[in-house]
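Form 7-S
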Amino acid sequence: MYVYCLRFVDYYYIGSTVRNPMVRFLQHRRSCRSSKPTNPKLAAVWKKHGEPKLEVLIKLNSEDEMVEYEQHLIDQNFGNEKFLNLSPIAGRPPSNKGMKRNPMSVAKTVAAKIGIKHSLEARAKMSAAKANPIIAVDPTGNETIYSSGNECARQTGFDQSIVSRLIRSGKSGAKGKIKGWSFRKS
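Output:
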């Protein structure tokens, strides 16, 4: 469990991770280079000043200690214009906990959604877009189509995580009551 700092020449970001800090650094890099970064402030500084230096500030033994230490550092630095953290509350990323929304933006979002009534055709299209049919093949080779992974799990009596894992792997179950079953997206 680590608390780290991404240090630019003038700016800095403080974070924590339960994994290797370099893995978290690479996640920050990927996010900052994407078209929709999770932290636009960090992305702008990264783009302007180049890659930051990763500094491990402390290694701790528990996640509670890690979050407490990160929170202490955030409390000391939040409000400093050179500090790049968006949220005043430490936590596992990405965390919007404690973020203050602009009241005007909230009002515009609410106003834009008031009174919207989608036509039956539009609702049918939205439902179809969400549909993710699953084909279940039992040990005897019979195929059944379900509208979603959740429905498939409910109807077959298998745990959703097992169904998802078998869909991703493309293999059939190897043991227990799932033996011989396979699932795939249609």
